[in-house]
Amino acid sequence: MISIAAGGFFGAIARYVFYLAAESRSQHPKWATWAVNSLGSFLIGWLLGSGSSSAFWLTGFLGAFTTFSTMALDAVKDMEDEKCLRALAYLSATLISGILLFSLGYVFL
What is the distance between the alpha carbons of residues 104 and 27, in angstroms, rounded to a whole number? Predict the structure, then answer.
């Protein structure tokens, strides 16, 4: 339990730092969330593909690093602004990149 909590602590900090860096390079903050989730998917695939079952990294760090709730909030904000097509494109891009990058990390590395 302590290793998961420690991993979550560091994962949340890493997400915040990564998010700030990505957000500063984009006019669309939701793409920072997309980048965090895509990178996290790749890393989870890579760790599982390499045989790691580390609770610190998988559940703690990467569980806190990736963020489903922020992705959902970004999509709902677009829908409230009547930008449903953009919300659908964002959700689709996130899901597709997450599955592809997880698979890439799992199979090829």
Answer: 28
The predicted pLDDT at position 22 comes to 78
Structural contact between residues 86 and 78, judged by C-beta atoms closer than 8 angstroms? yes
Which of 30, 26, 22, 32 is closest to 83 using CA atoms? 30
Identify whether the C-beta of residue 31 lies closer than 8 Å to the C-beta of residue 40: no
Q: What is the mean pLDDT of the chain?
A: 91
Q: Is residue 80 over pLDDT 90?
A: yes
Helix then strand count (H, E) for the chain reads 5, 0
